[in-house]
Amino acid sequence: MPESNGDAPRLIFAVSGASGAILADATAQALLRRGIGLDAVCSDYGEVMWRQETDERFRDAAARWAAIGRVTVHRPEDVAAPIASGSYPSCGMVVVPCSMA
After folding, report:
1. What does the alpha-carbon distance between residue 5 and residue 9 come to, in Å, rounded to a whole number?
2. For 21-78, how does the pLDDT look when each residue is reduced to its tens digit (9 = 90+)?
3. Is residue 61 situated within a structural domain?
4. Which helix (H) or strand (E) holds 19?
5. Which of 26, 63, 71, 87 is surrounded by the fewest CB atoms within 10 Å?
6. pLDDT in the model for residue 7
7. Closest CA to 72 of 86, 87, 88, 56
């Protein structure tokens, strides 16, 4: 598993605008408890859905997650964010919640 700065493995954790913020929250906490660091990004619609479903802002959830493990939050419009590079060392990416047709 690729590692970042010699620390725990990093996973890109993307939150979409699909319904199911509670699933994303539970997934993030489970990954962090297993020692996997998160590079989190939430779409604009994801922010709206998160607030509607949890009465909490996404950034507040990420701050709560940071008490469990290593979390870095990236803005979705930041094309210069490290996770925007194909050479960024991560062990993969998860998109949650995710709707499938």
Report:
1. 9
2. 999 999 999 999 999 999 999 999 999 999 999 999 999 999 999 999 999 999 999 9
3. yes
4. none
5. 87
6. 64
7. 88
Which residue range forms the structural domain that includes residue 76? 10-95
Residues 6 or more apart whose Cβ sits within 8 Å of residue 23: 96, 97
Q: Is residue 1 part of a domain?
A: no
State the first-to-last Cα distance of the chain, in angstroms, to the nearest integer: 31
* Alpha helices, DSSP H, located in 8-99: 21-33, 44-54, 58-66
For residue 33, what is the domain's CATH number? 3.40.50.1950
Say if 5 falls within a structural domain: no
Any domain includes 63: yes
Domain count, the chain: 1
Which burial class, exposed, middle or buried, applies to 64 when counting CB atoms under 10 A from its CB (0-12, 13-18, 19+)? middle
DSSP state of 84: G
The structure's pTM equals: 0.86
